[in-house]
Amino acid sequence: MAYAGAVREPPVLTEQEIADVRAWVIHEDEHVLAFNKPAGLSSQGGRIQAHTLDDLLWAFARSNGKRPDLVHRLDRDTSGVILAARTKPAAGFLGKAIEARRFQKTYVALVSAAPDPASGVIEAPLLRQEIGRESYMRVAPPGTPGSQTAQSRYRTLAHSVDGALVELSPVTGRMHQLRVHMAHIGRPLAGDVRYGGALTFAGMAAPRLMLHAARLKFPHPSGGYLTLEAPPPEDFGLLARAAVL
Q1: Are 138 and 183 in contact (CB under 8 A)?
Q2: Topology at the third CATH level for domain 1-100
Q3: Model-level pTM?
Q4: Which residues form the catalytic set?
Q5: CATH 3.30.2350.10 residue ranges in the chain?
């Protein structure tokens, strides 16, 4: 995790990029900034030659040259709530809260059929693999060297013969955890071709991963807990309404 105040060369942002990132803000105070990240935007370090959300945070730089820094990530095609710290103390506080599993993340996703049972807990260790320039996760037998314990909760919110809308909550925070766990129980996420998801949903195109970070509850640096929510993007909502809502 990068901490606020790190020395780096600011990118050159266009007026449109500055307007866009400011429009994505869903919460702002002296300690934190939160955004509803659009799908298709890398959080940090993407290989695509385009600005990441981390780059766009320079739009909020202060006169002393310090700027907010992300405290967690979302996959490039995952939309929804993502948090940045505005100060180094806030970044340190939130980093420790993540390590202590005090962040409660809730996602919604689309799958081709309702899970059976309709709700439950998935406990399956995950092992990271590098294939070419890509990183993958796979379920591994318990005790596999290099594997990490992983636990996810799921709940079916609505379903029909065309598909299902599910709520997902990671207990642990492994890379691609929700995607791999849902594929493990035979319900890969719509649009997630990396882990077996189809590019269609309810007879309509699902050209990207249909996963949205809908809610984040976390301890605030000034005390207490803060809960933030973000509505799904238009393409997600369109598919959900067509099939199950």
Answers
A1: no
A2: Pseudouridine synthase (3.30.2350)
A3: 0.92
A4: 75
A5: 1-100, 104-245
